[in-house]
Amino acid sequence: MKKLNIVWLAPVLALYAGMAQSALVDFVLSGDITSADAGNGFGVSAGDTITVTGTFDDSLLTGSGNETVFFDAASGNSLSFSLGSQSFTQMDDVDYGAGGAPKLTFTDGSFTGFHYLAEFGSYGYFSSVGTLIDAGDDNFFNNIVGGSWVQYSLTTPVPVPAALWLFGSGLLGLAGIARRKP
């Protein structure tokens, strides 16, 4: 009976490994500040960089056609970044919780845009539409910062199938050791 249990355990593990293809992926989005008014409230200059980091579940991405990854309350996805002295997360977006934004967009698996809008203080804002960056800190359209997103990369911390195979082989090893003990 024990031999039969071990024989059917391997195919069951293989079935679950095939079903567990999604994984949390870490992403990095880097942008260049191409223009910055002197005295802007962010403390950045032309030539500085801005980096967005975060994590999302890639299970709904197929790599084909137009696709979107949302960073709303229901998604479990997260992101954060700083523009000079001002820090932002997905919860700072004006549409957070409303199901609209922030979001990353892709076409045929390639990054096409970061969509984000945050307002702070009396007149401050940070906006990203597609690959463009726009920010300001007063109501007279002075102290403007502009730029564009130039590099997007993904890393997968631990692939789920590999972790499942490692766990399954450990269980099989323990079952074999337990079976040999008198």
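(the above was protein one; protein two follows)
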Amino acid sequence: MLRDRSGFTLIELIIVLSILAILSSLTIPKYKKIIAYEKLDITAKQLVADLREGQQKALAQETNVQADFYRNINGTSTDVYILKILEKNGYKKYKSVTLPKDIQLVDARFGNNNMLCTFSTSGKPTLNGHIKLENKNGQNLFVIVYQTGRIRISKDQP
């Protein structure tokens, strides 16, 4: 009497699982790199949105707005940018953003005023400049600010 042998043998299952393990070990590092880049991209987009908000505040309230960039706050690896609005008795902070731990503020250059971007009452920055962000994989994005008021993200250094 012959039995109906449907199903897989143990050897077949082990071979399939081995192939799946090899394939996943090849794709997981790429997946992590993609996730790290997406985090960098989201951080750059948030920075652009905050700078544009500063432009709008400068226009709406007819005053200057500053974006100050700080690296390694208090000796830590924490990077921060702070948005301030000019009032009668000086600049007042209205927003402070701490960058994610695995995103680094490498550089912020605006003419001679490194680490400082100022928007005038017209909403335009007083100087051209850029901010360089980098993730733990060494991938970079640049937020470029033009004196015309345009703000954009680029993979290429300005």
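Reviewer note on protein two: Residues 10-154 form a domain with the minor pseudopilin epsh fold fold (CATH 3.55.40.10).
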